[in-house]
Amino acid sequence: MTTETQKGTLFTPWNIVAGIILAAGVVVTIMRFTMGLGSVTNLSDNNPWGIWIGFDLLCGVALAAGGYTTSAACYIFGFKRFHGAVRPAILTAFLGYALVVFALNYDVGRPWRLPYPIFYQQGTTSILFEVGLCVFIYLTVLFLEYLPAALEWKRGFDKYRDILVKLTMGLTILGVILSTLHQSSLGALYLIAPSKLHPLWYTPYLPVMFFMSSMFAGMSMVIFEGTLSHKHFHHKMDDEYNLGYEDLQMAFSKAAAWIMAGYLAMKLLGLAMDNRWQYLGTGYGAWWLVEVVGFVALPCYAYAVAYRDRNLKLARFTALWTVLGIVLNRFNVSLVAFNWQLPSVDRYFPSAGEIIISLFVVTIGVIAFRFIVTRMPIFYVHPAYKDSSH
Amino acid sequence: MKRRHFLGLLGAAGVTLGSGATAKAASLGDVKGLPNAGGVLFDASRCIGCRKCEAACNQVNDLPKPAKAFDDLTVLDVTRRTDAKTYTIVNKYVPDAGKPPVFRKIQCNHCMEPACASACFVAAFKKSETGAVVYDPDVCVGCRYCMVACPFNIPAYEYDKAFTPRVMKCTMCQPRLLEGKLPGCVEACPKEALIFGKRRELLNLAWDRIGGNPGRYVEHVYGEREMGGTSWLTIAPKPSFAAIGMDENLGTTSAPELTSGALAAVPAVAGIWPVLLTGLYAISKRKEKIAESEKQAAVAAAIAKASADAEAKLAEELAKAEVAGKRRIEVEVKKALEAAAKAGEEGEDA
Question: Considering the domain boundaries, does residue A6 fall inside one?
Answer without folding.
Answer: no
